[in-house]
Structures are given as structure tokens and as C-alpha cells.
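PROTEIN DESIGN WORKSHEET
SECTION A - STRUCTURE
LENGTH: 323
C-ALPHA CELLS:
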């Protein structure tokens, strides 16, 4: 029994020692209104996600330059075969081929413009998301300061009401005040106290939302500095014509036009230069000497689409309506 008591005391002691250490690790941060933009840009998850999409889309730009880079393929292997009167034998083979774009009837130029516009749209989406999250952060910051002032006011009112209640109770014995008047004061005290608790809860919830918007850990102890009269309490983009949403619509219209033009050129020819070098097995070329089975090929290839089941034509019309 004494062992169990010592064991329980030891657990309680460990708990008391660990709790202050865990609370000491909670980060404390004093935040200014002007720092909101920096935190939203570098820590907000939605903004960071949009930034990743920008980097992803950026990798697809410079399509025109990349379209002139050669495509190189290589294959190699060994096969065992028997053909005709030739006994079963195993031989190696390999092939290296290269193909280079020479001419695409302007379709690669249009695709380059499309990818560049998509990249610009991704940057506009990033800007739009940043502005939305910054506006949210500023609203939450201002609201938290408003609730803080309300809490201070409620506490001051409660302090005055409690003093008034004490004075009234002392006057009750002298008959200078009635019990109904004291009851009215007590009721008002309860109402203000309830309002205080609700406001404190609202402010706590508000602070939690602000931490999430700023990408801060939930355990962060956040202190907000007061807002000066000269600081803007809401974000407004005065340049309406340059607003990200409007600029995005313009880019989307441009993409639809370019997609339509690209689809309308489906029938135009393309020209490629190609070259191959390979070693065939005896099964493919019946020469005993390996050198006689080497093959070098260099040439130009003209491709002309004849009929695509009206697929490109339908896409072109659809993109025109979309623009």
C-alpha cells in the first residue's frame, strides 16, 4: 500500500515538472498589423499551394524553344532465334534514332503563347489568393482588437456595477433603496458578465482563425499590437482594370482564341528531320559479317493530315464560342 502511494506521488511529481516545460516551449509572438502581408505570403497554406502551381506552370513555358530540341531514343537487346536452315543462335542488336522539328505550320508558336498565358494566369491566381487571404487576416486582426476593447469595457462596467451593488446593499439596511432595485442591478451584472464571457470566447476563436490564416502553430501565444489611425483597416484594389480576376478573364479569352486557331490549322503539314543508326541481327538481315548489318539513315519527313473525323474542327468552333 505504501508502495502504491509513493508510485502515485512520483507520477504527480513528473506531471508537475513536465507541464511547465511543455508550456515553456509554446512560442510567444507579438504581431504588428503591417507584418500580416509578410506572414500570409510566406506561411499561408493556400498561398503556398498557389505558388507551387506557378512553379509547375513555369516549367511548361518556353515551349517553342523546347520544340526544336531533338528527340533521341535508344534501344538494345539480345535475341535467340532460328530461321530457315540457320541453326539456333543468339545475337545482340541496338538502334539509336533522333528526330528534330523543322516546321509545324505555326502550331508550336501558338502552343508557346498558350503555355505562357497559362503561366500568367497561375501568377494572377496566386496574387488573387494572396489578396483574399490578406484581407481575411486584416479583418481578423481588426476584429480581435475590437473584441479586446469590448472586453476591457465590459470589465470596467462590471467593476463599477459591483461597487454600486456593494453601496446599494449597505443602503438597504437604512431603507434608502429597495430590494427590487438591488435585484435589477444584480440582473444587469449577470447580463454584462455573460456578454463578457461570450466576447472572450469570440476573441479566442478569432485569434485561432488568425493563426491558421497566418500559418502559425495553434500553440503559439499571439499578442496583437493596437492599430494606429493611419493604418488601412481593409484592403481595396483601387485599380479595378488591373484586378487579378479581370486580368485572368482576359488571359482565358486569349487562350481560347489561340486554341481555336491551333485547332483550325490541323490540316497544315509538318516537317521533321530524322536520323537512325542501328545493328540488326541475322534474322533481319542475312549477312554473316556484323558490319554488313549496320544501317545509317538520314532524311526529311513530311506529314500531312488528311481526315481527323472533324475532331479538330469541332474543337476550333468550341474554343471560338468559349472566347
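SECTION B - SEQUENCE
RESIDUE ASSIGNMENT:
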Amino acid at each position: 500500500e505504501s508502495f502504491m502511494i509513493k508510485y502515485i506521488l512520483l507520477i504527480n511529481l513528473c506531471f508537475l515538472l513536465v507541464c511547465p516545460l511543455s508550456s515553456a516551449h509554446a512560442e510567444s509572438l507579438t504581431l504588428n498589423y503591417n507584418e500580416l502581408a509578410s506572414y500570409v505570403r510566406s506561411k499561408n497554406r493556400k498561398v503556398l499551394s498557389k505558388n507551387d502551381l506557378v512553379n509547375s506552370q513555369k516549367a511548361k513555358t518556353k515551349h517553342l524553344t523546347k520544340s526544336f530540341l531533338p528527340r533521341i531514343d535508344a534501344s538494345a537487346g539480345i535475341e535467340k532465334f532460328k530461321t530457315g536452315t540457320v541453326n539456333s543462335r543468339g545475337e545482340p542488336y541496338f538502334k539509336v534514332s533522333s528526330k528534330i522539328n523543322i516546321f509545324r505550320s505555326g502550331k508550336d508558336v501558338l502552343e508557346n503563347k498558350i503555355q505562357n498565358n497559362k503561366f500568367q494566369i497561375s501568377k494572377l491566381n496566386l496574387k488573387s489568393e494572396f489578396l483574399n487571404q490578406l484581407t481575411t487576416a486584416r479583418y481578423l486582426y481588426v476584429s480581435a482588437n475590437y473584441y479586446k476593447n469590448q472586453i476591457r469595457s465590459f470589465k470596467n462596467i462590471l467593476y463599477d456595477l459591483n461597487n454600486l451593488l456593494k453601496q446599494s446593499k449597505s443602503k438597504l439596511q437604512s431603507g434608502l433603496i429597495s430590494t427590487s432595485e438591488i435585484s435589477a442591478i444584480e440582473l444587469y451584472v449577470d447580463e454584462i458578465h455573460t456578454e463578457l464571457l461570450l466576447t472572450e470566447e469570440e476573441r479566442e476563436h478569432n485569434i485561432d482563425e488568425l493563426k491558421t490564416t497566418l500559418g502559425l502553430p495553434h500553440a503559439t501565444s499571439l499578442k496583437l499590437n493596437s492599430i494606429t489611425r493611419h493604418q488601412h483597416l481593409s484592403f481595396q484594389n483601387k485599380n479595378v482594370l488591373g484586378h487579378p480576376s479581370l486580368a485572368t478573364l482576359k488571359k482565358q479569352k486569349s487562350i481560347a482564341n489561340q486554341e481555336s486557331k491551333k485547332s483550325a490549322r490541323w490540316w497544315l503539314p509538318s516537317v521533321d528531320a530524322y536520323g537512325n543508326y542501328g545493328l540488326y541481327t541475322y534474322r533481319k538481315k542475312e549477312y554473316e559479317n556484323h558490319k554488313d548489318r549496320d544501317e545509317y539513315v538520314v532524311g526529311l519527313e513530311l506529314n500531312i493530315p488528311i481526315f481527323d473525323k472533324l475532331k479538330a474542327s469541332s474543337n476550333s468552333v468550341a474554343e471560338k464560342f468559349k472566347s
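SECTION C - NOTES
The first strand starts at residue 28 and ends at 31.
The radius of gyration is 38 Å.
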